[in-house]
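lol forgot to send this yesterday, sorry. struct tokens for the thing we talked abt
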């Protein structure tokens, strides 16, 4: 009995986090190493006494960083309760004191001391000038911060929160911490930067002067000049949102509600742009409709007129974004269209309603949530899109490109970039609010436990014929675009020398065998391998965070659950351009100094794509009966064992979907990446953009074509691993 009691007294997880904290403080380098997070050269380069690689304990003994000494006190507190029972009063109090106090002090010293000593004049007045700088957090700092966080969650669990479940409380605390660090903190930093004047003082006047700049809100387009970038972006996003929603609905109706023979081919052509970097479509449009484009030259010769640059500006951006983002609307709407229960449509037909009346008064209103979400996604994607406006923008400036040139251009005005990012964020959050207001609190539930025929009625002929024609025309146009992408990769110099050649592929991906082995001599290999590496690391992390968050939202009840869900989904509402700017502002200085590293790219991908994993997990987990969890808990398993052995195996399709989506998005993203790449960590999309800016279209298209085939392979692998879910008669209907 005594042995059993002793085991109850000391939880193994507590021992683990105490050990992690002490290892981080006494053994591992406290600050980030210059060679990179994944480099271990420091082990043979002066460790442990070199100040650049020394643990915190050694730095204190060398009188280098004395401000780290108080952390040792907070690490020592948990040692006082090792022989205490979990129900003892001081058990939870000391753990909370250790965790909360340690985190608070670590945060305070992290932000109080920067690269030039004290960050705040009052600290210099109290303690005097600090002659030493502080570097970003390294292995040791990360492990100690993690230890404090989970000691805090153990203390909260010991006080009975969420039924005292250590795993659940720790998971909630972990997700809150990383979302606060990598979503809320950068956004807050960006907001603050907008108020900073040239002399580093805070001024609301400066903010409003930048906010109401005529270049942002000007209405000159009504008087023969240019409108501001805010109006340009808003007008473009609304057009793209409406048109992509209509086209997505058209394709969804043809695939699910028509007798069209080539549905599978149409569906494949519809989703193809998902695995394509958005700006690549812009390049194909240049090959077709640019100044030297084949279509432009053909009609110029036919009618004897000079070619024009009509493509560059609003028309080109609009066409490119519609081509790129229609598949997203289609994937949203096809599930909604299929989800409308046939029983309701049958009931309307029983009441002698015509097919057109059924469609207009029953089917279409029940698709309202899908239409709202499709518009929202098209709107946000248009706002965040950077590649297409850069390639096809001409004189039509938008917020995303304006932010980029404000940061990397000669003006380098962080405050202006922050103001532009705030405006962009305001537009996207306003779209979210408008969507929720439009949907209201009405019920759109159509699938119940009652049976139905499982067969949807076909569209009325008055709808089916024009819808099918429009779908075929647009699919044909999409196919032409991809033919041009493939063909353009083999053209020597488009519009000048149209001879076919493998030169671009050889330049990008040449390989040479030598005595020392294979040498990757192609110019694009470095960025290609970096992209694969970053995407391969980011994808499983995205899936892990997403699935754990989904489990907490569907299976647990705790205070602040709605706010918790909003926080985890906020990164989806934030355009990639805003993410890129905010990450530069937040993580270029201590305590988290990761700009120019691969870590910042991984982190941006994880939190940009996490909501997809969350939604996939929620959708799959909602289909799992909670009695499975209850049975496991009844048989003596804890929440962690239940999650690992019961829930996770049943979520394999959702996990794989999150993995592949995050992998594909990491391979093709550009809006945030363009701000975060460095010479050492160059991504495929930024490399392609660089080739485009140098008018090297052949190499850019060849690289893009290679990426497309890589993405198609990833999607094909997903199909093989997941397969197709068949639900009753619906799986066999409409084929």
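and heres what i got for the seq, position by position
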């Amino acid at each position: 009995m005594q042995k059993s009691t002793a085991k109850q007294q000391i939880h193994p997880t507590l021992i683990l986090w105490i050990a992690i904290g002490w290892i981080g403080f006494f053994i591992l380098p406290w600050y980030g190493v210059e060679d990179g997070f994944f480099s271990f050269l420091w082990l043979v380069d002066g460790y442990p006494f070199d100040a650049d690689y020394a643990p915190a304990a050694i730095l204190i003994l060398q009188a280098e960083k004395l401000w780290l000494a108080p952390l040792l006190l907070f690490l020592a507190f948990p040692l006082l309760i090792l022989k205490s029972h979990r129900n003892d009063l001081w058990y939870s109090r000391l753990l909370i004191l250790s965790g909360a106090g340690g985190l608070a002090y670590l945060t305070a010293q992290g932000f109080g001391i920067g690269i030039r000593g004290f960050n705040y004049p009052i600290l210099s007045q109290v303690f005097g000038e600090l002659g030493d700088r502080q570097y970003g957090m390294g292995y040791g700092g990360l492990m100690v911060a993690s230890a404090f966080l989970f000691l805090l969650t153990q203390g909260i669990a010991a006080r009975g929160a969420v039924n005292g479940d250590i795993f659940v409380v720790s998971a909630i605390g972990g997700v809150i911490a990383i979302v606060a660090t990598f979503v809320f903190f950068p956004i807050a930093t960006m907001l603050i930067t907008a108020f900073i004047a040239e002399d580093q003082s805070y001024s609301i006047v400066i903010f409003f002067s930048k906010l109401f700049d005529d270049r942002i809100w000007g209405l000159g387009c009504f008087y023969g000049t240019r409108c501001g970038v805010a109006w340009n972006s808003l007008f473009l996003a609304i057009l793209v949102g409406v048109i992509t929603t209509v086209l997505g609905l058209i394709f969804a109706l043809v695939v699910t509600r028509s007798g069209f023979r080539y549905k599978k081919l149409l569906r494949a052509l519809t989703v193809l742009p998902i695995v394509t970097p958005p700006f690549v479509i812009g390049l194909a449009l240049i090959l077709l409709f640019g100044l030297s484009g084949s279509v432009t030259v053909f009609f110029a010769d036919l009618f004897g007129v000079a070619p024009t640059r009509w493509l560059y500006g609003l028309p080109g951006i609009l066409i490119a974004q519609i081509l790129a983002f229609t598949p997203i609307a289609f994937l949203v709407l096809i599930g909604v269209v299929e989800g409308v229960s046939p029983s309701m449509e049958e009931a309307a037909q029983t009441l002698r309603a015509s097919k057109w009346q059924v469609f207009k008064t029953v089917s279409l209103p029940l698709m309202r949530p899908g239409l709202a979400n499709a518009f929202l996604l098209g709107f946000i994607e248009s706002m965040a899109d950077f590649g297409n406006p850069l390639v096809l923008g001409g004189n039509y400036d938008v917020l995303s490109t304006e932010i980029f040139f404000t940061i990397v251009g000669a003006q380098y005005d962080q405050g202006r970039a922050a103001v532009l990012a705030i405006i962009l964020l305001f537009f996207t959050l306003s779209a979210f609010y408008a969507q929720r207001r439009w949907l209201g609190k009405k019920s759109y539930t159509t699938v119940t436990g009652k049976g139905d025929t499982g067969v949807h009625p076909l569209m009325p002929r008055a709808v089916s014929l024009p819808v099918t024609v429009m779908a075929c025309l647009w699919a044909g146009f999409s196919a032409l675009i991809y033919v041009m992408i493939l063909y353009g990769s083999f053209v020597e110099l488009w519009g000048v020398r149209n001879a076919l050649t493998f030169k671009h592929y050889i330049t990008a991906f040449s390989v040479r065998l030598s005595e020392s082995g294979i040498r990757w001599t192609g110019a694009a290999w470095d960025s290609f391998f970096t992209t694969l590496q970053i995407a391969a690391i980011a994808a499983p992390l995205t899936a892990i965070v997403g699935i754990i968050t989904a489990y907490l939202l569907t299976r647990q009840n705790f205070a602040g659950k709605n706010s918790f869900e909003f926080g985890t989904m906020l990164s989806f509402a934030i355009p990639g351009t805003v993410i890129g700017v905010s990450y530069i502002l937040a993580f270029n200085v201590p305590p988290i100094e990761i700009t120019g590293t691969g870590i910042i790219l991984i982190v941006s991908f994880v939190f940009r794509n996490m909501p997809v994993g969350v939604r996939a997990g929620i959708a799959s987990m909602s289909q799992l009966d909670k009695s499975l969890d209850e049975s496991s808990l009844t048989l003596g398993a804890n929440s962690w064992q239940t999650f690992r052995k019961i829930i996770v195996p049943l979520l394999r399709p959702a996990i794989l979907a999150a993995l592949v989506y995050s992998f594909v998005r990491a391979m093709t993203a550009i809006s945030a990446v363009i701000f975060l790449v460095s010479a050492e960590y160059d991504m495929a999309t930024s490399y392609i953009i660089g080739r485009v800016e140098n008018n090297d279209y052949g190499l850019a298209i060849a690289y893009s074509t290679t990426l497309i085939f890589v993405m198609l392979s990833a999607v094909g692998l997903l199909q093989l691993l997941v397969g197709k879910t068949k639900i009753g008669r619906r799986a066999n209907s409409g084929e």
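The beta strands are 113-114, 117-118, 491-493, 497-500, 511-514, 517-520. anyway ping me if u want another try
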